[in-house]
Amino acid sequence: MTGVSDIFVATCDLAGQVRGRGAPATAEPGVLASGTGWVPANLALTAFGDIAPDDVFGSTGDLRLLPDPSTRVDIPADGERPGLRLYLADQTLPDGTGWACCPRGALRSALADLREATGLRVVASFEHEFVLRGLPPSAPFSLRRHRDADPFGADLLRLLADCGLEPETWLPEYGEHQFEITLAPADALVAADRAVLARELVRDLALRRGLSASFAPLHHPDGTGSGVHVHLSLVDDQDAPALFDPSRPGRLSEIGCRFGAGVLRHAGALTAWTAPSPVSFLRLTPHRWSVGGVFLGEHNREALLRICPTPTVAGADPAGQYNLEYRASDATANPWLTLAALVRAGLAGITGDYPDPVVWPERASVAGVPALPASLDEALGALTEDAVVGSWFDERLIATQLAVKRHELAHLAGLTSAERIRRVADAY
Ligand code: GLU
Ligand code: MG
């Protein structure tokens, strides 16, 4: 293992934080075989570092963090900093069987259920916006900003490529000090693993380059938000695209339309998983190009579920590019649970008896479409009231989500929006 002196085995929790345990490199074979110790109550840690008082697990119980070898990334030694080999882990019981509250396991089982019911696989990609603090002011989308971020930018692309994360684009974004990194689409579990890893690799490299990266949904009440847009497509067992049907509205296939119906129907409760911080809903308002309402729309950047364009330059085939983009998520959410909840919602739409959603044409006025919850409190209320969403995950996982998020709200009670935004930004 060149330049790597120790390993770290990690999970991502309900606060979207990556936590775990380290071991010397010499212990790697044993850790790969039997994992490292972990504790159920760790799932009840909030973004502010304490365990939620309503934690259902308490002081008992033991788990293993069992590394998945396919997630291995080597962060190279750099200056004074030693290299590190990082693994993402499944949380298991001490005998190695899956723990029912493991977020990564929840995604696996959602994907398996979708496959069993429909024969379809999910291909996904997470698109991340973030703010790089420590650079001079610069214009949106400018070459200046792109250059100001070097050598960080060039080093980031190399690091992500070396780690197998397949970076696709790296761009100066619209907001102050804002950038965006996109990764190639991949099988859903791999895509969610990449999202967990990408945030950590960005933050780690920024620190080593004297900068600080923040994935917080907002930095100022009136500022531009940073979203995590989740691109989804479905493919059959021959890898043929299943969302594209040029004969239908929006060219969205019947199964794609039903998948979308489930996402729209459960949108309120979904956001309790996908945008779960006390400030996430300040971003999810009209005129921010985040989400202006609960609708499925062609190309509209304020749709909850956006049908993405399929450029045909140089004869590119639209069917393989065609995908739906879920825009109501941010980096305070757990990527495995974000995708698990979306897949469960889509599956509920496919197997349930929901009305087909309107596919809003690109330039239609969408006035009057339903609104998303206006606050985390409302989203948690929607989660407790939506029995379908309540059936998707182990009840202790749902109880822990509610406990963690309610405690995060309590932490920030009485603060102004600007103060709450600052507190959340410090954690992300
Ligand atoms: N920054 C916007 C958001 O909060 C997204 C802008 C874009 O379409 O890239 O989601
Ligand atoms: Mg963007």
Task: Walk me through what this model shows.
The structure is a single chain. The chain is 35% helix and 21% strand. The protein has 428 residues and is of the alpha+beta class. The longest helix has 21 residues, at 188-208. The radius of gyration is 21 Å and the shape is globular. The chain binds glutamic acid (GLU) and magnesium ion. Residues 129, 224-225, 227, 283, 288-290, 301, 327 line the site of glutamic acid (GLU).
Name a few traits of the molecule.
single chain, 428 residues, alpha+beta, Ubiquitin-like (UB roll), Creatine Kinase, Chain A, domain 2, 2 domains, 10-stranded mixed sheet, 6-stranded mixed sheet, 14 helices, 16 strands, 35% helix, globular, binds glutamic acid, binds magnesium ion
What is shown here, in short?
By secondary structure, the protein is α+β, with helices and mostly antiparallel strands.
Task: Show the helix and strand layout.
Elements: E1 4-12, E2 18-24, H1 28-34, E3 36-38, E4 63-67, E5 73-75, E6 83-92, H2 103-118, E7 121-133, H3 143-148, H4 152-162, E8 167-172, E9 178-183, E10 186-187, H5 188-208, E11 212-214, E12 228-235, H6 254-265, H7 267-274, H8 280-283, E13 293-298, E14 303-307, H9 318-321, E15 324-326, H10 335-351, E16 359-360, H11 376-385, H12 387-390, H13 395-411, H14 417-427
Parallel strand pairs: 1-6, 13-14, 13-16
Antiparallel strand pairs: 1-2, 3-4, 4-6, 5-6, 7-9, 7-10, 7-11, 7-12, 8-9, 12-15, 14-15
Helix pairs in contact: 2-10, 4-5, 6-10, 7-11
This protein binds glutamic acid and magnesium ion (MG).
